[in-house]
Amino acid sequence: MSLDRRTVLAAVASAGLPAQALAARKPAKLRCKGHVAYAGAPLRAPLADWQLEAAAKAGSVRLAPAIDDGLEEKLSAAAGKMKIQALTAAVARPDGGIWTQTLTGPLHDAPFPQRFFWASVGKAYTATAILQMVEEGKLSLDDKLSRWAPDMPNAAFITVEDLLGHTSGLYSFQEDPGLHAERGYKPPERLLAVAAARPPLFCPGGAWSYSNTGYVLLGRIIEAVDGKPYDRALTGRIIERLDLRETTILAPRETPRDMAYPASEDDDVTTPYAAGAVSASSADVVRFWRALMASRLHGVELTRRRFARLYPMVNVSPASSYGLGVMVSDLKLADPSATDTWLGHAGGMPGARAMVAYALEKQAFVAVALTGEGSPEATANLLLSSLPKKA
């Protein structure tokens, strides 16, 4: 996910900084004296209480395996329209029936996959662990980054909440051409060094820009607070707590044999670290999202906090807004004939894409991941079209 130059300059201008400073790429021109007020695109209206309550109720219904010929036909139809190597989907209906299926395409030459790589959907898991620590009193959303990474630009002014919501202004390392050209695994230290060497896009709080750097830093904070590697910390806090037997938080250079790997081999799937490190079945991702929306991983107030400030995802996903490790997608912004709203998260890297969401109108949960070329969102929409509207 990236921002074009015009968007970056607009963000800088909205934060009260001279746009020509960034145009000339002279870090010395960007001098932040503190955390500034947000001055970017207007925030999305907050979700209504009844919407979050409906999601919590739907996520609390007891699940039971279900057979659904209609969903199987829809998934096969979607697969036929895309150039996939492998495709998986799960739908949890309002009645508690959970359906799941995995398909492989003609180019798939590996063992049948049990798990898929969920890319930036993993940010929701990272954010959940951070908010658990807030609830436990081990962290505050107002804590400054300088406590853990004093050498990062503007570390004295960037808050934990800025990292969660992508308002830190930190350069996102995946935009660096040199790093992008390097094949194979890159450790977090390398990613952060690349980001620290680039000028920030705006002063902390002043605008919004999707930053994988912020989530790598959150992973480092989780390790510092829990005193254990990121993958082990999240395994204990989320995977074991929910008994997700088909989910693995990937450790550096881990290569699960039962996972569908991205069609592109340019990068190691464990490079993103806390910005995306989940290997799971689609059914387990649905189970995680139901637990999140039902506030079984942290309290109701923190669930509401995640959706309280929704920043438009400028030039990333025009139909979506970003909270604290969550996205709200208003489908009508992309398709005037659509009326549903999804509460979820999406992600992708070359050769792999994924999404999970709770659909407000259908009161259903859906997760889709694929390797190859295709749209998990379009697939999810097709699957949900077979369910009746509830709201």
Explained architecture:
The protein has helices spanning 5-14, 19-23, 49-58, 69-80, 122-135, 160-165, 177-181, 188-196, 212-226, 230-242, 282-293, 300-306, 376-384, and strands at residues 64-65, 83-92, 97-104, 115-117, 247-249, 259-260, 278-280, 311-312, 320-322, 327-330, 341-349, 352-359, 364-373. It is α+β, with helices and mostly antiparallel strands. The strands form two sheets. It has a nine-stranded mixed sheet with strand order 1-3-2-13-12-11-10-9-8, sandwiched between helices. A four-stranded mixed sheet has the order 5-7-4-6. A hairpin with a 2-residue loop joins strand 11 and strand 12 (352-359). The two termini are 32 Å apart. Residues 1-28 have low confidence and may be disordered.
Give a short summary of the structure.
The protein is of the alpha+beta class.
Descriptors for this entry?
single chain; 391 residues; alpha+beta; nine-stranded mixed sheet; four-stranded mixed sheet; disordered N terminus
Low-confidence stretches: 1-28
User: Helical content, roughly?
Assistant: 25-40%
| Dominant shape | globular
How would you write the strand order of the largest sheet? 1-3-2-13-12-11-10-9-8
Distance between the termini: 32 Å
Order of helices and strands: HHHEHEEEHHHHHHEEEHHEEEEEEH
Assess the beta-strand content as a share of residues. Answer: 15-25%
Q: Give the mean pLDDT.
A: 91
SSE-based structural type: alpha+beta
Strand tally, please?
Answer: 13
Main sheet attributes: strand count, strand direction, barrel closure: 9 strands, mixed
Tally of alpha and pi helices: 13
Computed over alpha carbons, the radius of gyration is: 20 Å
